[in-house]
Specification:
- This protein is an all-alpha fold and about 100 residues long.
- The protein is built from 1 helix and no strands.
- It has one helix spanning about 1-100.
- The protein is rod-shaped and about 150 Å long.
- It starts with a helix and ends with a helix.
């Protein structure tokens, strides 16, 4: 009888180990599935970050272009003001010359 008790205890221990191995295998499968989902999420996030970074670069370029155009328009505006001033001065000079010629 003592041998049968040892065998029964050994079988009980083996069953307990098998149960634990099955639980660990199930946990491993669950972790692998979760890991794959997280990798997919990380890849989507990386792609979105890349897209958003590109949008930021494009907006910065557009802002720089607008700044350059504004500076160009401002210098053109100053040139236009200067041109108008010169035209007025020339008209005044022409009027003076006409007055002196007619006198």
């Amino acid at each position: 009888m003592p041998d049968s008790a040892k065998y029964e205890a050994l079988l009980n221990d083996l069953n307990a180990i098998e149960t634990q191995a099955n639980v660990l295998a199930n946990n491993c499968r669950d972790l692998l599935s979760t890991n794959q989902e997280l990798e997919g999420f990380a890849n989507k996030a990386k792609k979105e970050i890349t897209i958003l970074t590109q949008k930021i670069v494009n907006l910065e370029d557009e802002l720089e272009n607008v700044k350059t155009e504004s500076e160009g328009k401002l210098s053109n505006l100053l040139n236009t003001k200067e041109t108008e001033t010169l035209k007025i001065k020339l008209q005044n000079l022409i009027s003076r010359i006409d007055y002196h010629i007619s006198s």
